[in-house]
Structures are given as C-alpha cells and as structure tokens.
Amino acid sequence: MLRGLDISDMLIIDRLELGFQPGLNVLTGETGAGKSILLDSLGFVLGWRGRADLVRQGAAQGEVTAWFDLPDGHPAHAVLEEAGLPSGDELILRRINTADGRKTAWVNDRRCSGEVLRRLSETLVELHGQHDDRGLLNPRGHRAILDDYAGNQKAIASVREAWSALAKARKAAQAAAAEREAIAAEEEFLRHAVAELDKLAPEEGEEATLDTRRRLMQGAEKIRRDVVNAYELMGQGGAETALGDALRWLEGVADKAEGTLEEPMAALNRAMVELDEAMSGVADAIDGMSFDPYELEACEERLFAIRGLARKHDVQPDELAGFADTLRAKLDALDAGEAAQAGLEQAVRDAEAQYDARATALSEKRRKAAAKLDKAVAAELAPLKMERAVFVTQITEEVAGPEGRDAVSFTVATNPGAPAGPLGKIASGGELSRFLLALKVCLTQSQSGLTLIFDEIDRGVGGATADAVGRRLKALAADGQVLVVTHSPQVAALGAHHWRVAKSVTKGMTTSTVTPLAPEERVDEVARMLAGDTITDAARAAAEALLEGQQAATTS
Q: Which of 7, 104, 461, 474 has the fewest Cβ atoms within 10 angstroms?
C-alpha cells in the first residue's frame, strides 16, 4: 500500500508531501492543475519511462520519495532479496533527477538501478491511464496479458525450450545437408587425393628423416671417392710401384757402394711395409663405405614425392598424414551421410512433435483462460451499466514461434447483434473506459498488495453510469487501496479520502498544490465539479445531497 509521496522541484510542484490511506482515494481539480504531474512523479520514483523534462525550471534537481507498507509475504520482498537490498515492513523509494538529465535512485537508503525500481513497481502499483502502460488497447500485447492472467509462465518456458531444441535440430540438419552437398561436389577430387596419399602413405617426421639420410648418403659417396683415389695413388702405378722400383735400383748397386746404401735400403723396406699396412687399412675403410646409388635414388624420389604432394595440397610435409585423415573423414561422412542425414531429419521430426505437444497444451491453457476471462469481464460489465455488451477474447492460429502459435486479441460488441471488433475501435469513449475498468479489475484480482491507480477512468461517462463506475471503484478499494484522478462528481463523492489539486501564480511562477479536504470542503469541491467556477446554493445543495446519498448507500 502506498502510504506517502514527497515531491520537490518537479515541473510546477515546489514542495509537496501527501499521505494516502486504504480504500478509495480521489484527486480532483481543474484541467491543467497538476493531477497528471502527481502520476508522472510517482512513475518517476518507480522507474517508469516517461517524460524527461521533469525538473522544475530554475531548480538544480528534482526529487521524489515514496513509501509503502510491505507486509510479510509481499512479492516485493523477493525482488529486494534478489537485488541484495535491505527489506522490512516499510519500503522507501527515492529518486533524484538533475537538471542535466542524470538520475540516481535509492531503495531503503541503498543505491540501486532503474531496472530494480521497475521490477519493484510491478509488485507495488498498477496504473491505468489515458495512455495505458499495459497496452490494453494494443493487440500486440494481448497474448502476454492473457498469459499473465492465466499464470502460463511455466508452460511458456516449456514451449520456449522446445522451440529452441527444434531450432537447433533444424540448424544441425540444414548444416549437415549443406556440408554433404559440398563434399559431394568435390567427391572425385577427394577420392583421387586420398588414393594418392594412401599410395604414398607419408608419415609425420618422415620428410626430415629422408632429407637427413639423403645428405648422409651424398656425403658418403664423395668421401669414398676420395679414399679410392688415395688408394689408387698408393697402389699399382703409384707409391708402391715407385718404392719397389727405387729399391730394386738400389739393390743393383748396393755391393758396389761399400755399405753406404744399407740403411737407406732398410728404411725403404720399412716404408714399403708401412705402405702395405696403410693400403690394407684404406682398403678396409673402402669396404666399410659401401654405397648403393639405387638406395640414394629411391630416397630422393620419395623425398621429392612427399614435398611435391605437400605443395600440391598447400600443407606442410608433416601435415600430409593428418590431411589424409581429414579427407578420408570427409569421404566417410559422405559415404555415411545418407544414414546420418536420416538421423538428423528424424531428430527434427521428434523436436517438432515435442514442440507441437507443448504448444498445443499451451493453446488449451489459453483457451480455458480466455473463457474464464470473458466470463469475469461480463460479470464486471453488468454493474457498469453494460450488461448487454459482449467481451470476447479471440484466439487464432498464427505462425509458430517461441511462445506458441496463438494470436490473441480482445474484441467487444457493445450491442446485441452488432459485429465484434477491436476494443479500441468499436467502443465509444465512455464505453471504452468501462471496458478497460472491467478488464483491469479482472486482470489484477490475483495480484495482492497492489495499489491500483486510475487516471480519468470515468472520462466520457456521467449520471448513473458515472455512479456505477464510482461504486465499482469503491468496491474494488474495499480490500485494498485505489487512487483515482477524476472529473466526475459522482466518483469523487464516493471517495473515502479526497484531495484537491490546484495551481496558482506567484511572482510569475506557477505552482501546484494538493490539499486534503475536510467534509465541508468536499461539499464545495463537489459543487464546483457540478456547477463550474460559480458555486451556487443549488450546486452546494446538490453536492451535499450527492455526498450524503453516496455515504448512505455505502453504509447500508
């Protein structure tokens, strides 16, 4: 319940503090006196998106504070707990708007965001005005309104889950089909490439191994050639022959040299022995350097084949084996694609069936809720002097989506036999007000703890009809709190608490004031609403009679 509202420097309000009570609270005053400003200010502190130019001209900032009773079990407690804000039996909201547009909000003296305020407001206040924030006149919002009324949140969540699963299944099937088509387009290339790679069968690291081996074999060939050349120089026709010839020449003349050649000849003999040993060692080395030119050729052929295939497929040589596996997987996918695609298509059908079942269940819930709502609205229309009017919640099938496949619209027929049509197009101003009141009452019956605010709900009606509207508002306020901005004396007379909104001009500055009215002051205000600027004795007498009559009817 809204207990108070404190407003400073908002539009034409200098400073204003209001205390509200349970029951029916009425606010009256001339057009332009500032009644809507009160609602704008309340909307501001509740985080509603409204007009931006709220700060009073010349003021540095505007400020609004609202405080509410918050009994145990009130849904606002859950919002406060989720937001990490303190909770108690009283809720104080404060919001400041600076002249440059910056906004700051507090909940129970703790900073909070505008989003938290808006979530709290949904549990605190329900407003119906000339520009209904719930979109009762906009068919686009009718399905959400019906779902709120029916409590379909869990069913909607289930349908959303099924829709998401269906979307994923369809996406997977479409992606697989597209991939299969792409693979099929290059099937010939894939099979040729896989066959080529399988024939070569390259291994990771093989290219480096072959390159190292090739270099070793190429080096061994050169070394062996040089060693063979050295062996040939030492052998026949080389050093061995020259030393033998030299020894033979010396031996031929040694007996004539008187012993002077003995030592040189002995040295030559030793040299020939050493040469023989050296040649034997070189021969062994040559035998150990066996070289197969065919092996080198084979090594080079494989190395060049691996490198050529890597260049062909634009990969590194070490990646050829993995690349072959990738191509082979594509072929396997192509070969198994038909079966896999069939499985994916079956998954789509299963997801469609699940979505259909859940959407159908949600549609049934909506149809039952629509019948219940139609009956409830009809019951509300009778006391509002519209017992012959018909309200119908139409449900038609539309394109399936995450919230089902139902289109919902509120239609009315104001007279028997008249065609039904959209709420905002068929009903006249007075009829529309009553339809919206009845609908609003039905939609908020399940929401306890709400302060209901009606901004000129009685526009376009008068006399007995206005009296009927007022009595319904009073009945609605019997177990809670209702605030009504009204121009109807019949509605004003039924209020348990009455405030007059007026504006004045002082030193060129327009200000708005709100005054609680005592019983005798209420007579004058109702008389003004009946007669206009000049309050006659007749008007005053009529006001007194109206107030007395309403009070008597209420107590009886």
A: 104
Residue 4 has pLDDT above 80, yes or no: yes
Nearest by Cα to 427 from 473, 476, 377, 379: 377
HSE (CB half, 13 Å, CA atoms) of 390?
Answer: 11
Other Cβ atoms within 10 Å of 153 Cβ, number: 10
Cα distance between the two ends of the chain: 27
Residues in the chain: 556
Topology (CATH level 3) of domain 1-130+443-517: Rossmann fold (3.40.50)
Q: Are 395 and 363 in contact (CB under 8 A)?
A: yes
pLDDT digits (tens, 9 = 90+) for 124-156: 988 775 545 445 777 888 998 899 899 999 999
Cite the DSSP H helix spans in 382-488. Answer: 423-426, 429-444, 463-477
Cα separation, 486 vs 488, in Å, equals 5
The residue ranges of every structural domain in the chain are 1-130+443-517, 188-332
Averaged pLDDT for residues 13-35: 87
Question: Helix or strand or coil: residue 423?
Answer: helix
Rounded Cα distance, 378 and 412, in Å = 11
H or E element in which residue 500 lies: strand 497-506
Average pLDDT, the chain: 85
Q: Which residues contact 12 (CB under 8 A, 6 or more apart)?
A: 34, 37, 56, 503, 510, 511, 512
Measured CA to CA, the distance from residue 491 to residue 92 in angstroms comes to: 30
**Helix (H) / strand (E) containing 23:** strand 23-28
CA distance 556 to 553: 5
Q: Are strands 23-28 and 481-485 parallel, antiparallel or unpaired?
A: parallel
| Residue labelled with tokens 């699940």 | 354
Q: Indicate the DSSP class of residue 55.
A: B
Provide the pLDDT for residue 427. Answer: 64
